[in-house]
Design goal:
Blueprint (H helix, E strand, L loop, with lengths): L1 E7 L6 E7 L2 E5 L1 E4 L11 H6 L4 E4 L1 H6 L3 H6 L3 H5 L4 E4 L3 H7 L3 E3 L4 E4 L6 E4 L1 H11 L3 E3 L11 H19 L8 E3 L1 E2 L5 H11 L7 E3 L8 H11 L9 E3 L5 H8 L5 E4 L1 H7 L2 E4 L2 E4 L19 H5 L2 H9 L3 H27 L3 H13 L1
Parallel strand pairs: 4-15, 5-6, 6-10, 10-11, 12-13, 13-14, 14-15
Antiparallel strand pairs: 1-2, 2-3, 7-8, 8-9, 16-17
Length: 367
């Protein structure tokens, strides 16, 4: 795996790059749709390809519990198992363990947790996370980390950061498959001094990419941008920077201006199933009454399958009728919206007009 910076915007420093993996080249900045359980919910791999996505994210925790990483390895790895020939990034399971709260116990050795499926007890150490991800065969393997909520004390944030660094060192000692690359994760909560220290101690482990975790977990947008500004000088210039769990258009546009190259989030498909579309003005709740007799596309300028073939009125009818097709069409549109946004961002950077693009986009989006 290797990363190439193609062009850097003269004014903002935002950059266009290419990440080369065994399963294809990824143009950055990019958005990665989330296929939690080896599928982007409701969509076929061909439909996901049709949105322009070049890389997917799958969930180590969920695939470990069901169907099991050993089974997936027997099937020939995650790419073959889910029939996806593009690149795959697997998270470490750390965030899912964090979100279990009352169902887990964290020590320096690792995390003990109860399965959300049947209540059975399991233990994830850094080595176990690497073992599972190695079996899955993803292209990008995430280090096992401890994610923390935004309202903890400085002392607790430091403890979690130190534990994450210890776990990272253990992760780095596990031999992966030849095509796999480990991405370490910067933590430090909402404290500038911890973020800086975490970056300085984490980056030496980065071979071809580094991630920023523990943001977009309930803090304000301003606080997230502040933490990204703190980190920017310490991120390796010759490697991609991945902001974990971020997938709204405004966060992506602002994140790119702060040196971020990769984004992921379940939001586009989750809100789609609830009847909400992503548009340049923000969010369009198509399930609402004003769209009952609206026979225009979700977005007349969009080239996705849903917008080329169906109307807001029809999609609203599907959503109100609890028809699966409604969520599928909106999922296709929402992922395509973010893939188009990423393409527009890359073009603006290549033309050295990203600052203007950012201001115009945000004015329309917020307005």
């Amino acid at each position: 795996m290797r990363f190439e910076v193609i062009h850097e915007d003269k004014k903002t420093g935002a950059r266009v790059g290419k990440l080369y993996t065994e399963h294809g080249v990824i143009d950055t900045p990019c958005f990665m749709p989330v296929g939690t359980k080896a599928t982007v919910k409701g969509l076929s791999p061909e439909e996901v390809h049709g949105t322009g996505a070049q890389i997917l994210l799958s969930n180590t925790y969920h695939l470990y519990l069901r169907p099991g990483h050993e089974l997936i390895e027997k099937a020939g790895g995650l790419h073959k198992f889910m029939n996806w020939d593009g690149a795959i990034l697997t998270d470490s399971g750390g965030f899912q363990v964090f979100s279990l709260s009352s169902l887990r116990k964290i020590t320096d050795d690792g995390a003990e947790f109860n399965s959300f499926i049947d209540g059975s007890k399991h233990f994830f150490s850094p080595e176990k996370s690497m073992e599972v991800q190695k079996a899955l065969g993803s292209d990008i393997v995430m280090a096992f980390d401890e994610c923390t909520p935004p309202d903890i004390t400085h002392d607790k944030a430091r403890d979690a950061m130190e534990r994450t660094l210890k776990w990272l060192d253990r992760c780095s000692k596990v031999e992966l498959k030849p095509h796999q690359t480990l991405f370490p994760i910067i933590q430090g909560n909402m404290y500038a001094d911890l973020r800086k220290e975490s970056a300085q101690r984490t980056v030496p482990y980065a071979k071809c990419g580094v991630a920023i975790g523990g943001l977009s977990v309930g803090e304000t947008a301003e606080k997230m941008y502040e933490m990204l500004d703190v980190l920017y000088p310490y991120l390796p210039k010759d490697q991609p920077h991945y902001l974990m769990g971020v997938g709204t258009a405004d966060y992506i546009v602002e994140g790119v201006a702060r040196g971020i190259d990769m984004f992921d989030c379940v939001l586009p498909t989750r809100i789609a199933r609830n009847g909400t579309a992503m548009v340049k003005e923000g969010f369009m709740t198509i399930r609402n009454a004003p769209y009952a007799e609206d026979f225009t596309p979700i977005d007349p300028d969009c080239d996705c399958y849903a917008c080329k073939n169906y109307t807001r009125a029809y999609i609203r009818h599907l959503i109100k009728s609890d028809e699966i097709m409604g969520g599928r069409l909106l999922s296709i549109h929402n992922i395509r919206f973010l893939e188009r946004l990423a393409a527009d961002i890359r073009q603006a950077i290549m033309e050295d007009r990203y600052d203007e693009f950012r201001k115009e986009f945000m004015a329309q989006y917020i307005g």
